[in-house]
Amino acid sequence: MNIKKTTSYVFENDYLQFESFVKNFDDKEFKEFEEVAKKIGLEGKIDDLISGKIVNKSENQAAFHPKYRSYENNQNRPKNIIDAEDQAFKFFSTRWNDCKDNGYKSINIVTLGIGGSFEGPKLLLESLNDPLSNEIPGLDKVIYKFITGSDHKEFEHKTKALEPENTFFIVSSKSFTTDETIENLKRAFAWSGNKKNFIGISANPDEVKKYGIEDIIFFDKEIGGRYSIWSPVTQFHLSGKNRKNFLKGGYQADIDILENQNYYNFIKRVSFTDIFLNNNGKNVRAILSYVWNLRSLPTYFQQLEMESLGKHSSQSSDYINTGQIIFGGYGPRAQHSYFQLLHQGTQEICVDIISTEDDEKSLSYAQAITQSKLLADGESEINLNNKFRVNGNVPVNLFLLKKLDAFSLGYLIAFWEYRTYVTAKMLDINPFDQFGVNAGKIYTNKYLANKD
Fold first, then answer.
1. What is the pTM of this model?
2. What is the DSSP string of 244-276?
3. DSSP readout, 26-80?
4. Rounded distance, CA 326 to CA 183, Å?
5. Among 16, 68, 261, 331, which residue has the least CB neighbours within 10 Å?
6. What are the pLDDT digits (tens) for 324-334?
7. pLDDT tens digits, residue range 68-107?
8. How far apart are CA 199 and CA 213, in angstroms?
9. What's the rounded Cα separation, in Å, for the pair 397 and 341?
């Protein structure tokens, strides 16, 4: 099938290729947004983020996720993170030696956490298939489980086939007051019977100590939950090589946005297009991964964007609509689920498609390419009768990683964070707070107190 190509913008570097299939946004529109960017001092705001200045104005703090991934400049990297890596390795190595002496050939690691404490570790384990067992001598296998919600049946289901003697708990919570996590922690204590099999990861170590957990890994409160993929919350689910390369990939994006004008323009182009479409009737965007190992990436980006950009519009901004509604999933599966609406429905939707050039002859790669063009342009050279014809009016962003590895994934995620940050600055909203989420917690606790 030879589908007419209407690529409006192309970017490529050593790690990523991007094509924009977005009509009605050209250099004229870009220049108009660029004038706004200059007016608000966008470049300086990016410098502020990376240099560690206060960018979360409502909570009067910096955002340290760029600082945590500056792996090649170890003198700038927080010493507590380097110490934490050694501490985590020692914790699991020591517990493994005890299990080995008792005849076990594997261990179970159960992570208690929700939001960023779940989405990041799950994504990296699926994407890189590089468990901790590759780093600890003699350890055959690590079975990972995540317990996230408030329903006790989830805990019972996830622990049903496990034994307490070789099961260890990572308890991840920035505040260590998250309701779901604390409820599951209490269940885990009762099930395990041994608090020495628990390690807490938190920005609030004093709260962790209240529960009798001795092994505590600290990270800075300036790391927001949806950015904790760069912190110990996520990093201890990987072996050393991939952990370092993932951080290096993110750090490369930091370097590029500061030093590479083409890359900076690329980020602005994608962000400006998001705002343009969102303020011209296209308020919904589907993110679709055509890589099985990256099947959780759409959910990860959903949290990043909707928590960061889901804010009231600012009177000082030229744009009314803020964050788009994000949904999506694994592309080949989605084609047999909701693509019918994308191709022939009446909703106004945008699409991001993600694939990798590792295997350009694969069916999934071919689907990513052809679906991008079909969604954007429709069929043009095959004479289909009316019932088969598709709309061909969906704005599409096509992201192609040059290869799938830890470095490239870190680079892509850091790009997406900058995409979100630039959008937030253009909208004059704070992407680092989440008072709406906190309101839900307050009202739930109030409801429970009134039930007593």
1. 0.93
2. HHHHHHHHHHHHHHHH-HHHHHHHHHHHHHHHH
3. -HHHHHHHHHHHHHHTHHHHHHHHHHT---BTTTTB---HHHHT-TT-GGGS-HH
4. 29
5. 261
6. 999 999 999 99
7. 888 655 555 556 666 777 788 888 889 998 898 889 989 9
8. 7
9. 18
